[in-house]
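Appendix C reproduces, verbatim, an entry submitted by the partner laboratory led by Prof. M.T., so that reviewers can inspect both the input and the predicted structure.
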Amino acid sequence: MIWGLLLVLLAGFALLAVVTRGRSKPRSGGVSRGTIDYDLVRARWQTIEQMATESGSGLRNAVSEADKLLDYALKQLGTPGETMAERLKRVEGRLSHKEDVWQAHKLRNHLAHEVSFDLVASHAKGALAAFGQALRDLGALR
């Protein structure tokens, strides 16, 4: 099961690399409308939802992947910023639950950077809900 999950993740990363190759950064200081691959976002979101149902590190991986997917969408929409945090600040007005999205992103950072971080399932599920709503708010997930 873990090998299958790793294969799905690697395939997703490879597809993401192909889709984003050659895209230029926007020159304006504001948020410009870029193009987004809605099929890719929908497929990745379905994979993330599946990860969240798996035992073990499924929720942990799902939160990490959802954060990456939101950042991908922000970049594809032409949101300027060097980091995801900078991009999130640019779109806060478009997010219906901006505080929840910030908490979800912070949870992902704890998972990524703290060796002994203990993930609470309800917090992970709340983060996934926030990421999903943010993707819908931005029009990346329909």
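Residues 33 and 74 are 10 Å apart (CA to CA). Additional entries are available on request from the coordinating office.
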